[in-house]
């Protein structure tokens, strides 16, 4: 039996434009020069290029700040983590405050312009049809740093019914490796396959004692770079395409 644990952003949903725009809007509450309703096309394009550097939504605020300051998107792929503390200090707010700001900004935008908000976070091609046609007994879960209510809104908007109790979001309050451990405990004779677009997350989870039975897969269509995909192969982490995901319940998968 196979249990699929799927990241959301970068695996099921191409949310880069919404995340970047939400980060910009939230930044407008901190910096006057980010008060415009939308980022410029150039800044948003830079965000698309640098998106693999961030893991969690609130970091979009800091990444947008750096891009507006003229930082090179390709350089940020390598040094965003090192630069994050300095931008956080400039914001004058701690991580918890930025998470709250990012979430409430999203909520306000969703309430005011639901269609415009959802349009910037489409599911990847074929994902909605695949999710809608999964057999009822398929064990499929979503493990994400996005808050569950946003995941539910995007899935329902795409015509996908997905049980709330199978969505482990940011508000669940546990890191992805802890959720994977819970899934292993609940499915002791099944193979748990974790599909994630962030290589650093996969390697962190793989290093956790007790997760040796989890089959790690990098979503090659998501927010990662060619270098990261090559590194994944060297680390014996298979790089999947969307067709691999769609056929996952029909193949034998091993850790």
Task: Describe this entry's structure for a reader.
This protein is an alpha/beta fold and 255 residues long. The protein folds into two domains: 2-14 and 121-250, HAD superfamily/HAD-like (Rossmann fold, 3-Layer(aba) Sandwich), CATH 3.40.50; 16-119, no CATH class. 49% of the residues lie in helices and 10% in strands. It is built from twelve helices and six strands. The protein has helices spanning 16-27, 41-50, 59-68, 73-91, 95-112, 114-119, 127-132, 148-157, 176-186, 199-206, 226-234, 242-246; strands at residues 2-6, 139-143, 167-168, 191-196, 214-219, 239-240. Strands 3-2-1-4-5-6 form a six-stranded parallel beta sheet, sandwiched between helices. Helix 10 links the parallel strand 4 and strand 5. It is globular, with a radius of gyration of 18 Å. The model has no long low-confidence stretch (mean pLDDT 96). One of its GO terms (biological process) is DNA repair. One of its GO terms (cellular component) is cytosol. InterPro entries: HAD-like_hydrolase_sf (IPR050155), HAD-like_sf (IPR036412), HAD_sf (IPR023214). One of its GO terms (molecular function) is phosphoglycolate phosphatase activity. This is Putative phosphatase.
């Amino acid at each position: 039996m196979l249990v699929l644990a799927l990241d959301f952003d970068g695996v099921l949903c191409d949310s880069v434009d919404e995340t970047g725009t939400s980060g910009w809007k939230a930044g407008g509450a901190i910096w006057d020069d980010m008060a415009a309703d939308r980022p410029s096309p150039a800044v948003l394009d830079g965000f698309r290029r640098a998106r693999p550097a961030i893991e969690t939504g609130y970091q979009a605020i800091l990444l947008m700040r750096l891009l507006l300051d003229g930082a090179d998107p390709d350089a940020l792929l390598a040094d965003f983590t090192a630069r994050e503390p300095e931008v956080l200090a400039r914001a004058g707010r701690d991580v918890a405050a930025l998470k709250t700001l990012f979430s409430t900004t999203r909520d306000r935008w969703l309430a005011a312009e639901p269609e415009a908000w959802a349009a910037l976070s489409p599911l990847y091609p074929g994902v909605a049809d695949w999710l809608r046609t999964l057999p009822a007994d398929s064990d499929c879960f979503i493990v994400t740093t996005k808050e569950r209510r946003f995941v539910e809104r995007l899935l329902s908007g795409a015509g996908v019914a997905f049980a709330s109790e199978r969505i482990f979001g940011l508000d669940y309050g546990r890191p992805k490796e802890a959720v994977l451990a819970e899934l292993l405990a609940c499915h002791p004779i099944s193979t748990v396959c974790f599909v994630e677009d962030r290589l650093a997350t996969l390697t962190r989870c793989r290093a956790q004692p007790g997760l040796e039975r989890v089959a790690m897969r990098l979503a090659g269509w998501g927010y990662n770079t060619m270098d990261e995909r090559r590194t994944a192969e060297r680390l014996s982490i298979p790089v999947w395409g969307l067709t691999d995901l769609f056929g996952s319940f029909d193949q034998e998968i091993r850790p």
